[in-house]
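step=encode ok
step=design start
structure_in=
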């Protein structure tokens, strides 16, 4: 007779074996997500809103609302996982919905466009927070391998993020946008196969199962919740599609009002609700738990600032690459692979660096890493601002500036994101860890509100899709210079707060 073995006892290359199945599942899920994202803004500017003089503003509004809802949905998905489905079922449901969204996106038409984005929004809510939490559950409390495990996991994310823009961008350019979107759907199905094989081979042991509270089998309106939740998730897509399409196009393309007030209102309500719920949770915590939870909230805020600038890569920076960068061997969509390329190159060296510094008792505490990451983000945008000095007579700047910019931004990301993922699981009380992971990803939701605001400020108003570099260079360079100043200012504030936060973290390194 065989017995179920805890996944932490099955190791591969010094880590729980389940880590590598989650690694490949996330790799292919990110392939689908970033492959689609590389094409999204260019597709909207060149196809969906082609007739609008304010198509940049229209694309920025929809991109911001889509990105915000994608990450806001993780709070709901995390809570449903904690109370009903468990991590395994949540990840699988999310993957199915995302695959459906990508395949629907391969069908031409405005209705299918918004419906596809809606399926991806709902699916990501179930998939994203739970697979990251799943990684944390494979390690025991205090396991020093957790940071390096999350960094390895993070490398898997970026392998998908590197390959996807290159392949989907190539397909989109050579054969049409919808072929690129279709390939993204194939990637999501591949991720689901890897995850399912891990379950079948029992590499996760007893991790990720539904909570033992009877909610999984409980009937609501005569239907078990394990069936009701997927049905409601599917039925919510048309409502989300309506929110994403809730803009006004007045006068046959003359004026675009892209504030999307419904979505903005939703995010104000969500923000207030999260703060109230966190206040309630803190009132039930011990003093030690409360201090750590406050630190978790602060690092989430810092991450929001960073992502607000980082996520410009899929919108403003992609348009800058299309209009103002001398691209020789890749196109603008494919420049989205640069960030992931640097993450792949740097992930293991930086993971080894943290391990080496830990052995020497010199590893910086998390707040100092965050301050450094924000500083690097500021410098990266300053590099882009300087690129204007090297522009040619057509307003085109050398590709090398974009490569250096992404290098610095990627180092900053590795100082913050994988470390932050790990610390959220350490700083949060175990009973709400999936919810807090959802709040962590909510930082990206609010970051996309920043992305939308910046995108509108740097929008180019023109009916000419091939607007000249000379007409756009000044707008982008001035915007990048201002972003650099804000990022560096935020870094200084975090450095000042770091000693206080370090003490509040207690025994969490």
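sequence_out=
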């Amino acid at each position: 007779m065989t017995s179920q073995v805890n996944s932490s006892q099955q190791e591969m290359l010094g880590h729980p074996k389940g880590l590598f199945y989650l690694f490949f599942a996330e790799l292919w899920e990110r392939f689908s997500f970033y492959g689609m994202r590389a094409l999204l803004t260019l597709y909207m500017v060149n196809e969906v809103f082609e007739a609008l003089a304010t198509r940049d503003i229209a694309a920025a509004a929809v991109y911001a609302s889509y990105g915000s809802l994608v990450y806001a949905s993780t709070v709901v998905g995390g809570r449903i996982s904690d109370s009903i489905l468990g991590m395994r079922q949540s990840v699988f449901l999310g993957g199915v919905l995302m695959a459906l969204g990508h395949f629907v996106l391969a069908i031409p038409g405005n209705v299918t466009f918004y419906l596809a984005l809606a399926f991806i929004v709902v699916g990501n809510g179930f998939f994203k927070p739970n697979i990251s939490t799943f990684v944390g559950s494979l390690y025991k409390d205090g396991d020093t391998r957790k940071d390096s495990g999350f960094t390895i996991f993070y490398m898997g994310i970026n392998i998908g993020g590197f390959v996807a823009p290159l392949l989907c961008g190539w397909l989109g350019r050579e054969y049409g946008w919808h072929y690129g979107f279709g390939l993204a759907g194939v990637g999501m199905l591949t991720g689901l196969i890897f995850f399912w094989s891990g379950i079948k081979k029992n590499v996760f042991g007893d991790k990720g199962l539904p909570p033992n509270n009877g909610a999984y089998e409980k009937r609501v309106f005569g239907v078990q919740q394990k069936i009701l939740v997927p049905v409601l998730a599917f039925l919510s897509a048309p409502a989300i599609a309506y929110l994403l399409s809730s803009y006004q196009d007045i006068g046959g393309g003359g004026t675009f009002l892209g504030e999307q007030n419904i979505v903005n209102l939703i995010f104000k309500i969500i923000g207030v609700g999260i703060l109230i719920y966190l206040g309630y949770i803190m009132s039930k915590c011990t003093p030690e738990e409360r201090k750590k939870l406050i630190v978790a909230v602060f690092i989430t805020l810092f991450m929001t600032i960073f992502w607000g600038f980082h996520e410009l890569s899929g919108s403003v920076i992609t348009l800058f690459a299309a209009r103002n960068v001398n691209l020789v061997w890749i196109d603008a969509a494919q420049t989205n692979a640069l960030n992931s390329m640097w993450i792949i190159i740097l992930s293991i060296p930086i993971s080894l660096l943290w391990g080496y510094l830990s052995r020497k008792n010199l590893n910086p505490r998390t707040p100092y890493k965050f301050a450094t990451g924000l500083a690097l983000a500021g410098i990266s945008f300053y590099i882009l601002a300087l690129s204007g000095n090297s522009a040619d007579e057509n307003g085109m700047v050398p590709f090398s500036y974009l490569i250096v910019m992404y290098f610095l931004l990627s180092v900053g990301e590795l100082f913050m994101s994988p470390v932050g993922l790990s610390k959220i699981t350490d700083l949060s009380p175990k009973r709400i860890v999936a919810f807090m992971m959802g709040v962590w990803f909510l930082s990206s939701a609010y970051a996309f509100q920043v992305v939308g605001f910046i995108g509108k400020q740097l929008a180019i108003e023109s009916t000419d899709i091939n607007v000249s570099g000379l007409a756009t260079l000044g707008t982008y360079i001035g915007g990048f210079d201002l972003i650099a100043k804000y990022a560096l200012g935020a870094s200084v504030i975090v450095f000042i707060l770091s000693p206080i936060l370090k003490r509040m973290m207690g025994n969490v390194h």
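step=design ok
step=annotate ok -> Residues 1-9, 248-260 have pLDDT under 50 and may be disordered.
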